[in-house]
Model the fold of this input.
Amino acid sequence: MSKNVSKRHTVFIKKSFQGRFILGVFLLILLSGGCSALLIYWITGGDLQAQAQTAHTNIINALDHLGVSILIGNLVALLVAGSLTVFVVMYASHKIAGPLYRFEALCDQIGDGQLEMDISLRENDQLQELGDAFAVMVDKLRSRKDRRIRLVTELTSHLERLQKDPTITVNHLEGLEQMHQALAQLQE
Done:
């Protein structure tokens, strides 16, 4: 891997992947916070109501006030935790979605035969091992392509020399021309 560190400025690279990831985590937090708030409200409501009947005080108002306070407190905590979670998940998913986006672009370039590219990820991105494997793969493909080009060039030069040989028969010239056309296709 190259040590060139590029800074990615777009946080939402794979919007659908990152959006589903963030929404799923946020809904999980929302569900757990809501369950927690309702459970606390239900548990404290029964205890305070029992105390209100035996102590003959105005605990019923305290129950309503306490239950609503717990519910509001949990909802505020849930919103704060949910907001922080969205940013943390966005950052974490960005470290995964960014390299995946880079690999997709690299696959397109490799598919188009472009093997002279820099395969580098940012320093703290995930999937560094996959990036290293990609770099090795592209190096191998590049060396195979270079070897193939050298061989085609050599064979083309040999064929051209053979075609110019005055001792070659017409049948052999046709065969040599077919080989020359096949080599031309390999150069594409």
In short: The helical segments are 15-55, 59-111, 128-164, 170-187. The chain has two domains: 11-126, 135-188. The radius of gyration is 34 Å. The longest helix spans residues 59-111.
